[in-house]
Automatic annotation (TrEMBL):
It comes from the Eukaryota. This is Uncharacterized protein. It comes from Caenorhabditis nigoni.
Amino acid sequence: MSQALQTLTAALAERTQDSSGVSLFNKISNCIDDVVKIGEYVLEKAKTSSLYSSTNSDQLLDDFRVNLENISCDIKTKTEDSKFDAVFLDKVLRPMSILMRYLNDCLKYPVPAAVENFRSAYKEYAELVNIILIQLENKSSDPMVLSMKSDCLKTRTTFDRWYDIINGMLGQVLLLESFASTFLYSGPNQNLVDRSRKLLATVDSWQEDYIMCDYWNALKQEVEKFQDENGELGVSEKAGKLKMKLDDLLTKDSFYFLVLDPTEAALLEFYAKNQDQLIESSNHSIIIIYRSKYADTADTSMLGSLKSQFETLKNNEIKENPLDQEFIKGKLKDRMRHHMENSIHDAGFICVFSGIKGEIGSANFEQESGPGFSEILKMEFNGTQHGFVVGYN
């Protein structure tokens, strides 16, 4: 018995706050027999005492209780910060909270009164397990589905939070059911474990559905809102916050983005093959976002080839076209379009700028250089920069 307690206590102590629900489900589902043994131990302890007194506390049980309480508090915090409909609150969360409280009492003071309170409450909510699974298996009542529906950007933050909450709920259900099996003499419920794992696999597969959802129009609106809310920030701070937003999108698209603060004499030209892969906003500062739809599947040699093609083109441009600002402003965009169609075959986006203070960044791409090739140089005499971006199709 002490071994079962030590095993579970050690497992719960090794928790990750960001995924406490996933941690709880994995540990409880792999230690069902240990939970049953803990229930048996509590029942035996209760038989030897007739008082609801602190003198009946057990150090091994209390260590387990404290670690369980810590991880449950993480789950509770996420739950309280999330929105549930009234039916889910009444049918699921409130009964589960009551049962977890009585379970905590059994662990803290393993006496007859605590055991009887838990037994009575569990019988009162005998259908709780089935209700929870039905609520989560049905998309019309699953809180993750409802929350993702209201999240127009389909963010990883929303999905991961709810995935963790659902794991935590199922982990608590397994804990309660396994603990109660001792009191109800029903034995551990392997079918519940299997059904829960199947449900989590289904929920996990929904992520692929959300990845395929269209977020682009919502992102355009979000960029304008971002500009209004961050107008006082410098370009570096804006770029950092924008990267966090783009990295949070559930999509296979990869991004280049520019946050620019142009001077009066600045040069800025850009061209994209497909306009539905480009967002431009000039509210406060200039923000340009290009999404590459195929960079995540491109071989690194293809991105290297893109860089080589552009370096050759850049060197030829410098030889053939000196930095005459008026000439460049009048001809540069036409030349970019021509080069994209005839010289840089895998490019979907080219941007060239000069006389600008700004940042180039990339998001949702494993290579720090981004889905293509970029370079930015600082002009020492006036603090402005010039640079370019070439984005993969």
